[in-house]
Amino acid sequence: MKRRGRDWPDFKALLERMNADELREKLTKSIGQQQAIEAEPAAAEKAQQANVPDRRQARFDHEHDEGGGVTSRWTGNDDKRPAAREIGDAKEVSAATGDPIVLYGNQFAGVDGTIGNPPRLFQLKSAQDGPTLVRVITEARQNAQAHGDRGLEVHVWAPEMSLSQATDALLRDPVPYQSWLGRVVVHVRGGYFVVPTSGAPSA
User: Fold this and answer.
1) Contact 175/134 with Cβ under 8 angstroms?
2) Is the CB of residue 161 less than 8 Å from the CB of residue 193?
3) What does the alpha-carbon distance between residue 13 and residue 185 come to, in Å, rounded to a whole number?
């Protein structure tokens, strides 16, 4: 504190000697330096994603057993941790399939974690109606194509829909996914079904 007090008159005098253009240049430079400092964590996270050839082997700072067959892993503050609703839906999926699930939080675009043992890349979606069901499966395929995640297993949690509602929606507007997605599973009221690679369930 004493040093800052001694330095202040010199700094004040320096500012007073500057014209408007010089002051603007100095402020712009300072703001740029601050933005670079703030961008470092995001750059580090992006680099981590790029440097993990197999996201099933990603390393994280934190791990927590959520119960119900679900484990969460994340790096950074708790705002990177999986959301409570996502954890709840994952527990339902784990209970239905018997597969353990690991959620990655907000670490990787297009991948929510892994499912099964040995682990398979996993993405969790939710849907309340037919159009949303079609949309989220389409988004999952697009994410896999954008990030090169072939074999991604997608589970759509849709307990408000009946089996007939879900299959009718996909028969009207099928979403073929070929080799981009490993499997698409839709969880409806009372059970679940696997969507064929053609995107159209059996009538």
Assistant:
1) yes
2) no
3) 69
Which pLDDT belongs to residue 77?
A: 82
Q: What is the average pLDDT score of the chain?
A: 82
- For residue 86, name the pLDDT band (cuts at 50, 70, 90): very high
Taking the C-alpha atoms of residue 18 and residue 133, their distance in angstroms, rounded to an integer, is 62
Q: Which CATH class is domain 55-195?
A: alpha beta
Taking the chain, what is the end-to-end CA distance rounded to the nearest angstrom? 77
Domains of the chain, residue spans = 2-50, 55-195
Q: Distance (Å, rounded) from C-alpha 190 to C-alpha 187?
A: 8
pLDDT surpasses 90 at 89: yes
Confidence category of residue 97, pLDDT binned at 50, 70, 90: very high
Q: List, for residues 49-72, the tens digit of each pLDDT value.
A: 444 556 556 777 889 999 999 999
Per DSSP, the residues of the chain read: -HHHHHHHHHHHHHHHH--HHHHHHHHHHHHHHHHHHHHHHHHHHHHHHHT-SSGGG---SEEEEEETTEEEEESSSGGGSPPHHHHHHHHHHHHHH---EEE--SSSTT--EEETTTTEEEEEEE-SSHHHHHHHHHHHHHHHHHHT-TTEEEEEE-TTS-HHHHHHHHHHS----TTTEEEEEEEETTEEEEEPTTS----
